[in-house]
């Protein structure tokens, strides 16, 4: 089971979202805005910034984050699953 990281909890609070463990067994989190579910993000089989911070350290996590953000720079539609993943997991 995926444990929501402190990084993701902090980002969610800053951006006005609430996050809960996903009801989809393949995904990490369900994202809520104003008590309405707006997305499900994060493939459980992949890492994210918060998990890399914990397991591999800041330098490794920063390198991974830089690559992820470069690959997904086209994700600019607000509240899309892609944008939510960028904002909350990376």
Structural class: alpha+beta
| Number of separate domains | 1
| Average pLDDT rating | 96
Order of secondary-structure elements: HEEEHHH
Largest sheet: spatial strand order: 1-2-3
Number of strands: 3
Mass-distribution shape: globular
Please give the radius of gyration in angstroms: 12 Å
Beta-strand content: 15-25%
Summed up, the helix count is 4
The multimeric state of the shown protein is single chain
Spatial separation of the terminal alpha carbons: 19 Å
Share of residues in helices: 40-55%
Question: How would you describe this structure to a colleague?
Answer:
- With 90 residues, the protein is of the alpha+beta class.
- It has one domain.
- Helix content is 46%, strand content 21%.
- It is built from four helices and three strands.
- The protein has helices spanning 6-15, 49-56, 58-71, 81-89, and strands at 18-21, 27-33, 36-43.
- A three-stranded antiparallel sheet has the order 1-2-3, covered by helices on one side.
- Helix 2 (49-56) runs antiparallel to helix 3 (58-71).
- The mean pLDDT is 96.
